[in-house]
Amino acid sequence: MVKTQLLVVGGGPAGLCGAIEASRRGVETLIVDEGVELGGQLVKQTHKFFGHEGFYASVRGFEIAKRLKDQLNEHVKIMLQTTVTGIYEDVVVLYDRQNDVPLEVQADYILLATGASERFIQFENNHLPGVYGAGAVQTLMNQFMVLPGRRFLMVGSGNIGLIVSYQLLQAGAEVAAIVEIADRIGGYDVHLRKIKRFGIPVLLRHTIKKALGQEKVSGAIVVQVDENFQPIEGTEKEFAVDAICIATGLVPSVELAAMANVKIEYVPELGGFVPYRDQNMRTNVENIFIAGDLAGIEEATTAMIEGRIAGLTIAQSITKANLSREIESLQRELIEFRSGPFSEKVRRGLAKFFPQRVVEYSREPQVDSGPVGKLRPIIECYENIPCNPCQTSCPTGAIVVGGNINSLPKIDYEKCTGCGICVSKCPGLAIFMVQENVEPGFDLVIVPYEMLPVPEEGERVIALDRDGKQVCEAQVIRIVRFPHKTNLVHLKVPAGYATRVRNFRVKKQENVFVCKCEEVTLEDIEKAIDLGFTDYEELRRYLRIGMGMCGGRTCRSLVLSILSRKLGKSPEELLKGHFRPPVMPTKFESILRGESNED
Amino acid sequence: MSRIFEHPILMRRSARTVRFYFEGKELEAVEGETVAAALIANGIDVFGETERGKPRGFFCAIGKCSSCLMIVDGEPNVRVCITPVKEGMKVQRQFGRSGVPW
User: Fold this and answer.
1) Chain B residues with CB-CB distance to A485 below 8 A
2) Are residues A450 and B30, on separate chains, in Cβ contact within 8 Å?
3) Which residues 6+ apart lie within 8 Å of A324 measured at CB?
4) A positions 113-132 inside 8 Å of B (CB)
5) CB distance B74 to B82 below 8 Å
């Protein structure tokens, strides 16, 4: 039997924050988690968080997990790979999987932060390997760096669907399409824009009908739905994919709460069945608290705040210290976070437990796009989401979100010095820099870029617009790298394109070979000619073209025709290059043997 | 399916490898990863079959859905998505609830 003042079930953002606050006040805390490491689902989040800097805005999720773990002190004990199998009136039973033994724990207080599981949906062959939860794919690719497919279909366009689609691109996979059964996108507009810039099709009013394949997924049939979400016959489309990601929502993991006699209520706005709790995260059972997705599906920032409120309230009950100021300040944070339009549903759900309040925010968007010709940021953030790193990172105070972080950012171009820090900090990658007429006939566009390959300075790339459509060629003139890995790529684009270009694609290494022996491509030769190699012999020395085993039989005439085309000279005007023995490769050994025969 | 060696944000945590056995065949895994990750990296996505003979793979990867049950070192019903792979570990496909007593 182990005794502890506080048992925290689940070491994700909510559980960790609860443990941090309680242990900081001397509460003996035991964290139990099923996984192989602490951090819960933070460890697989590679995107930068929204919110404000007090709650790690602009920090990537897996980095937040590290920072939280570092805040645990000597009052905290941790058991990983351990399952809480049941909560009884007098005891909590754990199962330590590593040692294959059960263990009994008596805790004065319990904080349940068990999170949620993926919402499964019904379609034909949904049992096939290759049908994966979007979070599962994220675990595999971002925690273990393994890709469970090459080409994915994403089902669901909430934030998870959008984020995982973007992360699949980062991992080098393809996303065939995102399908969404509703008539609008579920997630943040800035997340949508990130994937649209790469040309990923988003099909609204569509859903998956069937997974194809015998042993595993080899494709998917997608179908359009009517206003009652019923499939419209004859609108089926087939996608050749080897994996299907289900991102249709999460279901709170309420099992342990229910066993502990916590009242479970059906609140669809919070994800279905959720435990009752008050504003301090206390349930109807005096010493049992909940936090995070278990208390209602939301996101990691609110999970962290809820965890802190629970930890503080527990610490207050145990130590009798007055922590009401800290608790109330965090409750105000939650109210502010939840004041925006995206939290409307959560507010409606929580209103069933206690009255909800909102604080006003500004819906007024930026109207002007600044003085033409000045190097300046363009903020494409048009939706009221709780986020303000653009304001807090601006060294000159030019960007203002205002008192409520759900307000839209406004920029004062008089104050802006064009430093670009906001571009690199914006978690939504929604800020770009532009400058018209940076040189005659050319504009400058600076885009945030988090993909591979990173182009080289001087490289010519294909410029894309907001929908991922090719608009012109651009030249990379500078790349500013940051430790947080959001690179700023400076693109020189033809005049007039600064308002359109928002992304680019590195030109693919095309497999058009001119010389197979030495593997020289058309692109290599054209680049070399552009560099000033204008003669067959020069190209031969520079690229080894014509120096392979065939002796140039295959490539000589091709190279001459490319030279002729690029230089605008007729083939007769070009030097054909020298012909030297041996015309076919001959072994040195044989040549030497010939010499010895002469003796 | 495949390992990610280059990533714009992430770095590989460990380059140390361990050997384990899948259906008697020796395979390589990266130290610290789960059995499920190691299998997928080796191109194995069918982890077993249901009672009625349907192929089964992982689904949630965080220990919640029990879709990834396999026989590990003779023990059935192991959730391989939250079980770290170990040197010499023997992993087998599970058919239904398996014939192994537990």
Assistant:
1) 8-9
2) no
3) A316
4) 117-118, 120, 127-132
5) no
Question: Nearest CB to B4: which of A35, A171, A242?
Answer: A171
Is residue A320 classed as helix, strand or coil in its secondary structure? coil
Instruction: From first to last of the 599 residues of chain A, give the pLDDT tens digit.
Output: 999 999 999 999 999 999 999 999 999 999 999 999 999 999 999 999 999 989 999 999 999 999 999 999 999 999 999 999 999 999 999 999 999 999 999 999 999 999 999 999 999 999 999 999 999 999 999 999 999 999 999 999 999 999 999 999 999 999 999 999 999 999 999 999 999 999 999 999 999 999 999 999 999 999 999 999 999 999 999 999 999 999 999 999 999 999 999 999 999 999 999 999 999 999 999 999 999 999 999 999 999 999 999 999 999 999 999 999 999 999 999 999 999 999 999 999 999 999 999 999 988 888 899 999 999 999 999 999 999 999 999 999 999 998 889 999 999 999 999 999 999 999 999 999 999 999 999 999 999 999 999 999 999 999 999 999 999 999 999 999 999 899 999 999 999 999 999 999 998 767 899 998 888 999 889 889 988 898 999 999 999 998 888 888 889 999 999 999 989 888 888 888 888 888 888 888 888 887 666 55
Q: Which domains does chain A possess?
A: 2-116+251-350 (3.50.50.60), 120-248 (3.50.50.60), 376-506 (no CATH), 509-599 (1.10.10.1100)
> CATH assignment of B17-95, given 3.10.20.440, 3.90.1150.10, 3.40.50.300, 3.30.1360.70?
3.10.20.440
CA distance, residue A115 to nearest chain B CA (Å): 10
The HSE-up count of residue A69 (CA atoms within 13 Å, CB side) is 15
Q: At what angle do helices A556-567 and A522-531 cross, to 10 degrees?
A: 50
Q: Which helix (H) or strand (E) holds A333?
A: helix A324-337
Chain B positions with Cβ closer than 8 Å to A: 1-10, 12, 30, 32-34, 36-37, 40-41, 45-47, 50, 54-65, 81-84
**Contact residues, chain A, for B54 at CB < 8 Å:** 127
Model ipTM value: 0.96
Helices (H), A71-158: 134-138
